[in-house]
Amino acid sequence: MPAELTPPSQADLSRIIEMAWEDRTSFEAIESQFGLNESAVIALMRRQMRPSSFRLWRKRMAGRRTKHAALQGGALMRHRATHTRP
User: Does the global pTM surpass 0.90?
Assistant: First the structure.
């Protein structure tokens, strides 16, 4: 069953929002882990955040090279949590 049809758990919502705010985590990495494409992440952020916070996030993400794998030269950056690093 695709991730879009199954509501994400509260832990998944928190993780998606955290990844969306991070500069180094691309939308493609979020899609590979949670099955949400860029437009679905934007819609989720719009629903979960205050309007002013959403506008701030959109302004910050607009045109940011690291949020799109295609702009990174095709290399998909995988997210790695800080607590899992050696």
Answer: no
